[in-house]
Design a protein that fits this description.
Elements: E1 29-35, E2 43-50, E3 66-73, E4 84-85, E5 105-106, E6 112-117, E7 133-136, E8 140-149, E9 159-164, E10 174-178, E11 184-191, E12 193-198, E13 214-218, E14 223-230
Parallel strand pairs: 3-7, 8-14
Antiparallel strand pairs: 1-2, 3-6, 4-5, 8-11, 9-10, 9-12, 12-13
Length: about 230
């Protein structure tokens, strides 16, 4: 696929009985390479810049598509109807992404959902049915603020980082963003809890916590306002 957005199909090839394929006479340009097969999760093999004389080789690991199903509950274990469920990202052990994931689905009146799932690469068949997933929908708030210099002038080139106060690990919420040109920033739909926020990277291995870091508590339906003064 080549050209500016939207991408358009330029050339295709089909693998033989041994899984080998070859695509020839591709015009010079920048291309996005993807591989797909019936009953398998599509793979994005990355981008390639071709000058008309290049030969690029790829080894593609394919995994069978699966179905994920489960239940969304609130903090009191009651089903949540109409909750949006999506797979954020799936990546193989080779470091390459899978293709377009299933679109988001909404839970039914009983809080249940079923969706296509592109699994991470595994050379062995999956033994789990992936039909017993339980997701819990928690309350959320917001974090807003601005970054200014010691002179009170806005600092639009700053970056804000926020992580769970217990540390950045699987299962915790966190994120980062560049401050807007007006010096402000805003994190929406932040799960209730305690967080550390700073205009510098936080929780880096071997790096002390920035002096500017602040600990905040996000409550349901409320907005925490924070201001940072930087040099």
């Amino acid at each position: 696929m080549s050209g500016s957005a939207p991408w358009e199909l330029v050339a295709t090839g089909r693998a033989d009985a041994e899984g080998k394929f070859q695509i020839e006479k591709i015009p010079a340009g920048t291309y996005q390479i993807s591989v797909s097969a019936d009953k398998y999760a599509a793979r994005y093999m990355g981008y390639a810049v071709l000058n008309g004389r290049d030969v690029k080789s790829f080894v593609v690991d394919m995994a069978l598509e699966q179905t994920a199903a489960g239940l969304v509950l609130d903090g009191t274990d009651r089903p949540v109807a109409g909750a949006e469920v999506r797979v954020a990202k799936a990546m193989g052990m080779d470091g390459l992404s899978y293709g377009t994931l299933a679109p988001s689905v909404k839970t039914d009146m009983q809080g249940r959902f079923t969706m296509g799932l592109h699994p991470v690469w595994n050379p062995k068949p999956f033994s789990t049915s992936a039909k017993d997933i339980v997701l819990r929908a928690g309350s959320a708030g917001a974090v807003k603020g601005r970054v200014v210099g010691a002179d009170g002038a806005l600092r639009p080139n700053s970056q804000i980082n926020i992580q769970d106060a217990a540390g950045a690990k699987v299962g915790t919420w966190g994120g980062s963003m560049n401050v807007k040109q007006d010096g402000t920033f805003s994190f929406e739909n932040v799960p209730v809890g305690k967080y550390v926020i700073a205009p510098k990277p936080i929780f880096l291995p071997g790096v002390p916590m920035p002096a500017e870091a602040k600990t905040i508590t996000v409550e349901a339906g409320k907005t925490v306002e924070v201001e940072f003064k930087v040099k």
